[in-house]
């Protein structure tokens, strides 16, 4: 009997952990004051301790004052959180995302840009088009 891909993936430990962290993040965001959402990331939950990374020190300082209230709010939601641990890790120190491969400029678009560049007067737009074309000649 064929299994669905989602069922197969759900059995992988890494996928289960990612789904659990995603669920914890949603529940933590719901307990957070709105102004802090997006500036915090749940990274682990072990032995009743919820570990969270904050994007800056101001958020971490403010949430440290609210840590016990956050733990209680999460307990009311059915999570066995005894403690919320906060650390500062600015976005610039987080692992950078791998660069995405950019698709090449279609030939028809390149030709249209070349034609437009030829008919423009010297200026910023013409220079920008020439730089774009130069960049895409290598591709």
What is the strand arrangement across the widest sheet?
Answer: 1-2-3
According to DSSP, the number of beta strands is 3
Order of helices and strands: HHEEHEHH
N-end to C-end Cα span: 46 Å
Output mean pLDDT. 85
Task: Please summarize the sheet with the most strands.
Answer: 3 strands, mixed
What is the CATH architecture annotation of the largest domain?
2-Layer Sandwich
What is the SS-derived class?
alpha+beta
Q: Beta-strand percentage?
A: 5-15%
Radius of gyration: 24 Å
Broad shape: elongated
Instruction: Determine the CATH superfamily of the largest domain.
Output: DnaA, N-terminal domain
Low-pLDDT regions: none
So what's the oligomer here? Answer: single chain
Helix content class: 40-55%
In short:
The protein has 139 residues and is an alpha+beta fold. The chain has two domains: 10-93, GMP Synthetase, Chain A, domain 3; 107-137, no CATH class.
Description:
The structure is a single chain. This protein has helices at 5-10, 13-31, 57-76, 107-119, 124-137, and strands at residues 40-46, 49-54, 83-88. α4 (107-119) packs antiparallel against α5 (124-137). β1 (40-46) and β2 form a beta hairpin. It contains 5 helices and 3 strands, in the order ααββαβαα. It has 2 domains: 10-93, GMP Synthetase, Chain A, domain 3 (2-Layer Sandwich), CATH 3.30.300; 107-137, no CATH class. It has a 3-stranded mixed beta sheet with strand order 1-2-3. With 139 residues, the chain is of the alpha+beta class.
């Amino acid at each position: 009997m064929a299994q669905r891909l989602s069922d197969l993936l759900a059995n992988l430990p890494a996928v289960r952990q990612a789904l659990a962290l995603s669920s914890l993040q949603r529940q933590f965001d719901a307990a957070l004051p709105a102004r802090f959402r997006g500036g915090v990331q749940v990274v682990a939950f072990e032995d009743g301790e919820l570990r969270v990374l904050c994007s800056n020190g101001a958020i971490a300082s403010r949430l440290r004052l609210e840590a016990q209230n956050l733990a209680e709010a999460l307990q009311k939601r059915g999570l066995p959180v005894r403690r919320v641990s906060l650390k500062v890790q600015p976005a610039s120190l987080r692992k950078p995302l791998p660069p995405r491969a950019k698709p090449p400029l279609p030939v028809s678009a390149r030709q249209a840009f070349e034609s437009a560049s030829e008919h423009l007067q010297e200026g910023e737009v013409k220079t920008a088009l020439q730089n774009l074309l130069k960049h895409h000649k290598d591709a």
